[in-house]
Design goal:
Radius of gyration: 34 Å
Distance between the termini: 49 Å
Structural class: alpha+beta
Helix content: 40-55%
Largest sheet: 5 strands, antiparallel
Number of domains: 3
Number of strands: 11
C-alpha cells in the first residue's frame, strides 16, 4: 500500500498503513469492500434491514452470488417468514406466478427471478405519453389482484368503523377479496419473457379487503416515488378512470392504519423529525448563541477588561501593580480569583510559571489552573 494504492488486503491493512507511513492518506479516504479479481464470491453483496418495523416484523434481506436472495428472521420475527412462505404457496395455488420459497431454520431463501420490473414497464408506458399503454398494464395488474383470492361476502370491520373510514358500495368491476395480498404492488412484480407477472416478497395478507384498495395502493406508491408522472397523467385522472376518487380518503386512512400495525413508532417519529428538519432553526440558534456571547463580552466589568488586557499583553508585575490600585470590594466583586492566581504564580518554580503564563490569557482562564 502507498500513496497511489487503490487496493489493500483487509487482513494486512493496518500493518500497511504503519509500514508505509500513509495514515494521513488513509484517514482521508473511503474504504469500499471488493473482490481482488472477477471471481464470484459467496459473500453478501447486498443487505437491508428496516429500522422502522416492530421486532416481530423485522427481518434482514440479503443477496449473495452463492445463496441468492435470503430473508433472515430473529426469534421474535420467525413467524413472518412462515407467513411469507405460505402467501407465496397460496398465490401459486390460485394460478399466479410466484418466486419459489424455502425455509431452513430462521432463513427463507427465494428463487431469483429474471425479467423486467413492472415498475419500469409502467414508467416506460407513462413516458410514451399514450394513456392506453398505462391503462393496459394497470388493467392486467388489477386482474392479477382479483385472481389472487376467492370472493367474500363480508367487508373487513375496519371499513365504515368511523367517518374517516367510510366506504361506499363497491362498483361492479371491483371484487371483495377473502384474502387481500396487499403486497401485490408493482415493485414486487417482474414480467418474464412470456409476459407473465411473477410476484415476489408477499409479506402481508388481510381478510376481506377490496381489490380496488390494492390497486389504489399501487397507484399511490407509484406516484409517491415518481412525482413527475403527474405531468403526463394526473393521479386524479387515474383515480377517476378506476372509480377510486370517492374511495381515496378511506383508502388513504386504511393504508396508514396498516402501516401503523407494523411500524416502530419511536423510530418512525425520529426519522420524521430528521427528514422534516427546519434548518432555519439551526441558523436562528447560531445567531442567538452568537448574540449571547457578544452580550457576555459586553457585560464584563471594566476591571475584568483591564485584567484581560494585562494577562494577554503585560507581565505579572504589571498585574500585581494594577491589583494593588483596587479596593477589596472591587476585587471580591469583579475578579475574586486574581489573588489566588498571583499567590500560585509566585509559589511556582520557573517552569511552572512559564506554563501558567501560557495557559492564562484572560481572567476566565484562571479557573482552569486553580
Amino acid at each position: 500500500m502507498n500513496n497511489n494504492s487503490m487496493i489493500s488486503d483487509e487482513k494486512r491493512l493496518y500493518n500497511d498503513i504503519s509500514d508505509n507511513n500513509v495514515f494521513e492518506f488513509f484517514a482521508n479516504s473511503f474504504l469500499v469492500e471488493c473482490s481482488i479479481n472477477n471471481n464470484k464470491l459467496g459473500e453478501v453483496d447486498y443487505a437491508v434491514s428496516s429500522p422502522f418495523r416492530d421486532a416481530e416484523f423485522n427481518i434482514i434481506t440479503t443477496h449473495s452470488c452463492k445463496n441468492g436472495f435470503c430473508k433472515t428472521a430473529t426469534d421474535k420475527s420467525i413467524d413472518l417468514l412462515h407467513t411469507i412462505d405460505s402467501n407465496h404457496k397460496t398465490l401459486a395455488l390460485r394460478g399466479l406466478h410466484t418466486c419459489k420459497t424455502n425455509i431452513n431454520g430462521n432463513t427463507l431463501t427465494t428463487e431469483t427471478i429474471t425479467g423486467k420490473s413492472l415498475t419500469q414497464l409502467l414508467l416506460d408506458a407513462f413516458k410514451s405519453r399514450v394513456k392506453d399503454n398505462v391503462y393496459h398494464i394497470l388493467d392486467k395488474l388489477y386482474d392479477e389482484i382479483k385472481k389472487s383470492s376467492d370472493s367474500s361476502d363480508t367487508l373487513n370491520s375496519i371499513f365504515n368503523s368511523s367517518n374517516e373510514l367510510t366506504l361506499d358500495a363497491l362498483d361492479k368491476n371491483d371484487k371483495l377479496l377473502a384474502k387481500g395480498f396487499v403486497d401485490m404492488i408493482h415493485k414486487n412484480c417482474f414480467v418474464d419473457k412470456d409476459d407473465n407477472y411473477v410476484w415476489i416478497d408477499q409479506e402481508w395478507c388481510f381478510d376481506n379487503i377490496p381489490a380496488s384498495y390494492i390497486l389504489f395502493h399501487n397507484i399511490v406508491e407509484l406516484y409517491y416515488s415518481n412525482a413527475w408522472l403527474g405531468s403526463y397523467i394526473t393521479v386524479r385522472e387515474i383515480f377517476e378512470h378506476y372509480n377510486l376518487l370517492n374511495k381515496s380518503t378511506c383508502y388513504f386512512n386504511v393504508k396508514n392504519i396498516i402501516l401503523n400495525t407494523v411500524q416502530n413508532k419511536y423510530s418512525t417519529f425520529n426519522y420524521w423529525q430528521l427528514s422534516d428538519f427546519d434548518y432555519k432553526k439551526v441558523e436562528n440558534n447560531i445567531v442567538m448563541l452568537h448574540n449571547n456571547l457578544i452580550n457576555n463580552q459586553n457585560n464584563i466589568s471594566e476591571t475584568e477588561k483591564a485584567i484581560n488586557n494585562i494577562l494577554n499583553n503585560g507581565t505579572i508585575d504589571e498585574l500585581v501593580s494594577y491589583v494593588n490600585t483596587l479596593t477589596d470590594d472591587v476585587i471580591l466583586k469583579d475578579i475574586p480569583d486574581i489573588p489566588k492566581f498571583i499567590v500560585k504564580y509566585f509559589n511556582a518554580n520557573e517552569n511552572e510559571q512559564m506554563q501558567l503564563s501560557l495557559a492564562v490569557k484572560c481572567y476566565k482562564d484562571i479557573s482552569n489552573v486553580l
